[in-house]
Amino acid sequence: MSGAAPFLGVLGGMGPLASAQFMLRLTLLTPAMRDQDHLPALLWSDPRIPDRTAARLGQGEDPLPWLLRGLRGLEAAGCGAIAIPCNTAHGWYEAMQAATALPILHIVDAAAEDLARQGIRGGRIGLLATAGTLAMRLYQQRLEGRGYDCLVPTEAEMATLVSPGIALVKANRVAEAYAPLAEAARALKARGAAAVVLGCTEIPLGIQAGPAAEIGLPLVDTIDALALAALRWAGK
Q: Phi/psi of residue 219, each to 5°?
């Protein structure tokens, strides 16, 4: 075991299906020929973590103590870095990073790297995300400095398409989530978006439940983007 690669710590459960999908994609995106080529990873999946959007909108319990509990558990297990497959949880990124010496891979930076990988290095892009993520301007603040102009859904689109689509995925009604989420993505395309960032880890699951190619523009799956960032951290 001497000199063995450190574990990637995955702080998950927000929601459980998105965390499971992250582990699946981390495995499938790894250039591996055998078990031993894969990245050692530990998933801390705690669905009891209070709702992040409700907290950010002042309507629910602060999730930070629960997030820090997960961080401490992953630290104690010997992890070398942390990935959090939940976009809205990154609203507490600074507080979490201040509480640990381990690097926390930022999902918005991972999304920006994926945009560049797809040849989109600035300009107008669309953003689908939870109301909490949008209210925090989590993506807007971090991407504007890289030359992106973020288009977001209208309040009506959030109320009738995006939030219901996310809720359907959380309720394990994934196939039903495609229609509202795809309609929201097409609305951003109609307003001039050159690509759409799926800035909630439930949204890629809903989009992939239907013909994603029919949306007709590049999509950034933030689950995949974060998995690729983890593989870069591990030198893979």
A: -120, 140
SS3 98: helix
CATH topology of domain 7-106+224-233: Rossmann fold (3.40.50)
Q: For residue 148, give the DSSP letter.
A: E
Mapping DSSP to helix (H, G, I), strand (E, B) and coil, where does residue 25 land? helix
Beta-carbon-side half-sphere exposure of residue 129 (alpha carbons within 13 Å): 32
Helix-strand-coil percent breakdown of the chain, rounded to 5?
A: 50, 15, 35
Query: H-helix or E-strand containing 109?
Result: helix 107-117
- 108-222 CATH, one of 3.30.540.10, 3.40.50.1860, 3.40.50.300, 3.40.50.920: 3.40.50.1860
Per-residue pLDDT at 4 exceeds 70 = no
Among all residues, which ones are annotated catalytic?
86, 200
Average pLDDT (141-162) is: 96
Name the segment(s) of the chain with CATH classification 3.40.50.1860.
7-106+224-233, 108-222
pTM for this entry: 0.95
| Cβ neighbours of residue 211 closer than 8 Å, sequence gap 6 or more | none
